[in-house]
Amino acid sequence: MNRVLALGFFDGVHIGHGQLFKRAALRAKKLGCLACALTYDPHPQTLITGRPVPLLCSTDERAALIRTMYRIPEVIVDPFDAETAQIPWQDYVELVIVRRLRAVHVVAGHDFTFGRGGEGTPALLSEACRRYGVGCDILPPKRIAGTRVSSTYIRGLVAEGDMENAARFLGHAYRLSGTVERGQGLGRRLGFPTANLPLPKERQAPAWGVYATRVVWNGRVYPAATNVGIRPTMSATSAPTAESTLLGFDGDLYGQRIDVDFVSFIRPEKRFPSPEALAQQVRKDMEAAKLRG
Length: 293
Fold this sequence. Notes:
alpha/beta, Rossmann fold, Elongation Factor Tu (Ef-tu), domain 3, 2 domains, six-stranded antiparallel β-sheet, 10 helices
């Protein structure tokens, strides 16, 4: 089937990426073909520099956001490996875009680069597409109050704990998904059982502290207070986690997959003088989370 391709890495699937997906969907509808997003794993800079890029979402989360938020029916995740990195940009257009994926139209952002050494530019992509009879839209940057929307900028907001502005630029809440791990049961002993998620090393972790969040499980949404950090009062650890205390839930989530959507920052993580003092603060955090969530 012929395709309209939206091209990019799309980390976080922010509203700037959304412009590309909307344009691709519109073109596909007019041309009677399939709207598709073409992305990669891992991030190209991880291979090129040898340093992992702290991502806003996993590959699976990225694909799910593209499908559900922008109704793009097909998401292709190509491996970005040493062989891919060495493809000349001209060959990439011919072999991948035109021949393999049968694109009749492509949509890319103003800063999209591709091919060996990133030599392929939007201008060169547009020129090559004309030679092959493929349509091409190069879209300008999306801005909010003069600030350009970018994954790099949003990573900075998440690192600072500014979840409200992160959500403005993303077009959705920053989300951490995963399978609940069994902890030491310390929260339950305090009267506040928690759902514990590990923080993957490849993810951009929020600033350590307590957040108002929404936990999605089994089709239901629960307001929650989520602590991100190393739990310094009860069992300090070098491996940071996200511990969520769900309001209105008293069950066992061990082994269950949950989504944690971050709403706003409540307070920094801190060490309390006693478990009783921590329990008192958790009650306050839950009240704050209930009001904000």
